[in-house]
Amino acid sequence: MNAIGAIAITGLVLCGEIGHAADAVAESKSTNSVIVPIEGRRGRTMIRARVNDSEPLLFLVDSGFAINMISPEKAEALQLRRAGKITIVGVAGEERADTYEGVVFDFGSGFTYSARRVASLPSHSSRLVRRDGVLGAGLYRQFIVEVDPAAKHLVLHRPDTFEYKGPGEIVPLKFRKSTPIMTASIVIPGQAPIQGDYEVDTGCDGGLCLGRDFVERTELEEKLEPGKKSARTGVGGEKKTHSVRLPQLQIGKLIVERPSADLFEEGSPADAGLAGHIGTEVWRQFRVIFDYSHRRLIMEPLKTAAKPASP
Asked: Which residues of 14-32 are buried (b: 16+ CB within 10 A; e: fewer)?
C-alpha cells in the first residue's frame, strides 16, 4: 500500500496531521463513563488498556499524537495485520513507520473502540522502553477525556450523555485536522500581554515549547531573565533550545505562575503560524476535561499555582 501523509513529531510528541481516521466506538454501551487509573511517569498521563484481548498494556495518553502508536515488539507479539507505511517527520529528521489495522482498544466496562490504523516506529524500542504505545487523537475524538492528577485517574465519558455544570474555566478549541489549538498569553510585568495560539500537547513533559519565529517576532528573550542551554529530543535527533521561566501564563481567566519554557534556537515544535505548544507541566495543575465534541477545554485548578486573574 502507498504511504499516507507525513506526521510531524516535536520533542517526544507527534504534532502533525493525518486527517480524521475512521475510528468507531464499539456497540456496547453498558455505562456512560469508566474510570481508568493513571500511572504517572514524569508528570505524564499513562493508562493501561487491552489490545485485541491482550494483557493490559501501558499507553501514554497524548493529545499531540495524530495516530495511535504501538511498539514493534507488541505489534509482532499480537500478530497485528500490516496496512502499509507512513513517514513521520521529526524535529531533526524523519523516520518510516509500519502501520497496522484491525486493532481494538478495551478500557473496561464496555468502553472499546476500533482504530482505523495504528503506527509502529522502529526507534520505539530504544526511546520509549517504559511504555507499550501511545493513545492519541483517536481516543479524544471518541470519548470526552477527563484527567484528574489529584485523584490519579482518567475518566472516559460518552459524548452523547455528558453534561458539565461545574465552575471550571471553559476555553474554546480550534482544530487543524486532529490537532487541538487554544489561545493563551504570556504575561510579563510592565509589558503588554503576548498572545499566541498554541497546540495542546499532553505528551510533552515541559511547560511551553516556543518556535523561533514567535520568539523573534515578540522579542521574548530580551524581556526575560537569562536561562540555560537545553534541548528537545524527537524523531531524527534533537533541537537546541534556551530554557527559561516565564513570569506568568494566562489561559482565559486563569493564571499559571512561572511555567518553564523552551525557546527553540531554530525551527518550531508546532505548525506555521502557531506560537508553539503547551505541555504537561501546565496541565497537571488542573483537572482538565477534553471535550472535542463541543470544541472546548474545561480547566479546574487543583492548587493556588493556577489562580484566577485579577479583574
From this structure: bbbbbeebebebeeeeeee
